[in-house]
């Protein structure tokens, strides 16, 4: 409990929900909401899911900045009223829904990261109040749907793996209701891109071989507190949070339950799914450009030779790597970084851990994003062949995506 109490003391957290948590509370799902007219449909959907033996809570963080339009203000006010009525009709000891009014946040402090942080901090506080240090906090978005076993499988997975501090959840963007063919092509290509990058990380042997999606992860309360909670970024909050957790030890992955994110286009955040899909939709491209699979082979060579770097001269080690990666690492000032790693590493294992603390997911992303040279469908086929996996039976993007979704992670 010390991590939770120390974190809450630093945050000077005061309760935002007046209702005492159920003694058997095991899972809290946090959902940021801004201008979500379909919030009741989401609550009805979640209420229809299979319920576990442990109590479940859903925390909705209704938020907008203090420069929000009248439309957004009115929409959020309606949502708060609707949620209150829903609570009166449907809250039970087994499933409690709570709303936090986080409207009128200062512009500089507003956004999805702050909203998610407010909800997750409150979840940490609620678990701490009943002495449940390892309670599970799931992150979801208001436009998502989930598989029937979402709550039960989450609890079963964490209960069955006590050492698992956090996990990503299987996902599949919803496309069946999209009538605009280019919009559908955009989200299909975007998901192919995400899956391609994750496969590439896995082929390279990197310790962060996962996809960071804000609606598709869960973390234990003590791990959340130990890593200082969610960040306040207006976009990419999920990426930074999950990569911070992955530095402690590898994340789990839960393939037996699904989150189905919306494919809607949006400009709410500077980047992310909605913005990326909108940019592609309004552009002139016919496919999603990605780096060649050779880039992941280069990273694999780096990973395989890391043990040598522990004692080998850095210049000699760099000379053994392909030129593009060698130049990139040099530009990142690897020589000085390695000196610091060696000075603070007694073993190869600790050296490797420090290396990947330095060469983190962001550096890896920046490297692969320098080289967009081929369509994602073609790149995926080549990468799967390189990994000795079964070759796709089609080059059609939508069929290829369905095939990848069926492939175990």
The shape is: globular
Structural class by helix and strand composition: alpha/beta
- What is the terminal-to-terminal distance? 33 Å
Please give the share of residues in helix: 40-55%
Strand order in the largest sheet = 3-2-1-4-7-6-8-5
- Weakly predicted, low-confidence segments: none
Give the DSSP E fraction (strand runs of 2 or more residues).
5-15%
Q: What order do the SSEs take from the amino end to the carboxyl end, as H and E?
A: HEHEHEHEEHEHEHHEHEHHHHHHHEHH
Tell me what the structure shows.
- The chain has 409 residues and is an alpha/beta fold.
- Strands 3-2-1-4-7-6-8-5 form an eight-stranded mixed β-sheet, with helices on both faces. It has a two-stranded antiparallel sheet with strand order 9-10.
- Strand 2, helix 3 and strand 3 form a beta-alpha-beta unit.
- Helix 6 runs parallel beside helix 10, helix 6 packs across helix 18 and helix 14 runs antiparallel to helix 15.
- The longest helix is centred in the middle third of the chain and has 24 residues.
- It starts with a helix and ends with a helix.
